Amino acid sequence: MAQDEEKTIDQLNEEADIAADYLEGLLDIVDYEGDIEMGVRNNRPTVQIVADDDTDIKHLIGRNGEVVDALQQMTRLAVQQKTGERSHLIVDVDGYLKRKRQRLHDIALDAIDEVRETGEPVDLKPMNSFERKIVHDVVREEGMKSRSHGEEPHRYVTVYFKASVAEETEDEDEA
Q1: Nearest CA to 19 among 91, 115, 84?
Q2: 164, 160, 48, 149: which is closest to 96 by C-alpha?
Q3: SS3 letters for the chain?
């Protein structure tokens, strides 16, 4: 399937089903209790693991979401193996991604406020592509500009007014 072709809702639901089966198998292996909720959001299949017991579920989140990220990558590979196509599946554990999105939203708004107060560009700490996209979206919604810089895993976002980049370009030309 060409990358720009959108998948049908049936294809997205099939990916979510495959992912849910895969994750249920993993939960059985580690003997964790959890329910799987599936859906489609923003034209992407989503699967969330929800549990009543916070003890086990925290192990599925990991430090800074490292385990959630690994689960998502493994689950995407399992879906790709079954469908033959790359998946943009989102895996969440106990609402971790929702909380993370909110934190990133707040970080972006704080940076925007600082740029508005000082007029100077603000560099944020290094982020993965998921995190950077959220920041870029918030910045755009607020009528500001942002750009990613650096190489993975040290890629970061700079928030600025339009004029800041033009001024930087002029300064570089003068040097």
Answers
A1: 91
A2: 48
A3: CCCCCCCCHHHHHHHHHHHHHHHHHHHHHHCCCCEEEEEEECCEEEEEEECCCHHHHHHHHCHHHHHHHHHHHHHHHHHHHHHCCCCCCEEEECCHHHHHHHHHHHHHHHHHHHHHHHCCCEECCCCCHHHHHHHHHHHHHCCCEEEEECCCCCCEEEEECHHHHHHHHHHHHHC
pLDDT band at 129 (very low <50, low <70, confident <90, very high): confident
End-to-end, the C-alpha distance of the chain in Å comes to 48
Give the distance, in angstroms, between the CA of residue 89 and the centroid of all CA atoms in the same chain: 11
Long-range contacts of 70-74 (CB under 8 A, 24+ apart): 71/23, 71/26, 74/22
Per the rule left: phi > 0, alpha: psi between -120 and 50, beta: everything else, 71 is alpha
List all residues 6 or more positions away from 132 whose beta carbon is below 8 Å from its beta carbon. 148, 155, 156, 157
Peptide bond into 153 cis (omega under 30): yes
Beta bridge partners of 50: 35
Phi, psi of 86 (to 5 degrees): -65, 140
Average pLDDT over residues 43-70: 87
Prediction pTM value:
0.74
